[in-house]
Amino acid sequence: MTRVTAAPEATDPGAAVTRGADARRVTGRGRSGKRRQRLEIVLFVTPALALMATFVAYPVYSAARMSFYDWKGFGPMVDSVGLQNYVRVLGDEVFTDAVMHNFIIVFASIAVQLPLGLALALLLNRRIRARGLLRTIIFVPYVLAEVIAGVVWFQLLQPRTGVLEKMLSSVGIPVPEQGFLGTPDLALATVFVVLTWKYLGLAVLLFLAGLQGVPDELYEAAQLDGASWWQVQRRIAVPLIAPTIRVWIFLSMIGSLQLFDMVWILTGGGPANATTTMATYLVSMGTQRSNFGIAGAASVVLFLIGFAMAVAYQALVLRRDTKADA
User: Fold this and answer.
1) pLDDT attached to residue 30
2) DSSP line for 108-153
3) What is the pLDDT of residue 1?
């Protein structure tokens, strides 16, 4: 039996040239697409990097450079003092008290605003009357400018003439003679009450947004199994918004470390440095005493404390969320 062998297919030189040209065209398009993507990345990232360099990196560098000089704000910085400004800042009892005040506000904010904001969010997530109005009332203080809110509360808390103190006195509640903001033992607690009124709306807004993202099927399945409203919230709703809660804690922590506006308007750091924060300390040293070297050292210490806490919180707490997303 004779085996029939197929003749080799004839190769068309023109077809080979066409295929080679097509391959080069595809390769060229791929390279062009990559260059275009890189150009788009550069165009979108450059403005953000420029802003970061102008308003973050350069001020940090200037403060760090300033901290090594005894500079009063005029003329060139030539009187180098090494680390003496840092020694003076860390040895200043006013600054150490300011650090303690910042950390008191950090922990008090988490201990008070977290459960209060979560409770309000759980309440407003239910179908109740005037729910929209209640949400607006709670959130409006947060969108007010700190200056406006601070001036309003400053007028309300004025001794003998403030509306709030007159109301308390009319119902028989004793009021300090120097007012709540003028009494060292009550000033920091009063400032914290104002801060809670101001920033509680952010916590409620974030928690409420997280709760509304929980699927209704989970609630319905739990109700079919006979779970009560409290059990549903404790076992399903709150665990599912835990990432949102952790993000809010981070924002609250960093905001409390940078606290300046409200304290400066209400008390200016007084009375007797009872409400001084790290930010008010460095501003007072720089603008009122013209000791910019001390102010620069204090700002660097504030930056390092905030950076260390942010990195630690990211590594210990937020890391699980980033891993889950990955």
Assistant:
1) 60
2) HIIIIIHHHHHHHHHHHTS--TTHHHHHHHHHHHHHS-HHHHHHHH
3) 45
Tokens of 129: 């009357």
CB 149 within 8 A of CB 141: yes
pLDDT in tens, 89-108: 999 999 999 999 999 999 99
Q: Give the DSSP letter string of 186-209.
A: HHHHHHHHHHHHHHHHHHHHHHHH
Give the 3-state secondary structure of residue 65.
helix
Instruction: State how far the Cα of 264 lies from the Cα of 260, in Å rounded to an integer.
Output: 6
Extract the residue ranges of the chain whose pLDDT is less than 70.
Answer: 1-30, 321-326
Tokens describing residue 81: 């003092």
| Contact call for residues 260 and 279 (beta carbons, < 8 A) | yes
* pLDDT of res. 323: 62
80: helix, coil or strand? Answer: strand
Q: Are 311 and 304 in contact (CB under 8 A)?
A: no
Q: How far apart are CA 266 and CA 94, in angstroms?
A: 18
Query: For the chain, first and last CA: distance in Å?
Result: 65
Q: Which pLDDT does position 19 carry in this prediction? A: 59
Rounded to an integer, what distance in angstroms lies between the CA atom of residue 198 and that of residue 112?
A: 13
pLDDT given at position 270: 87
- Prediction pTM value: 0.82
Helix then strand count (H, E) for the chain reads 17, 0
Structure tokens at 12: 């068309």
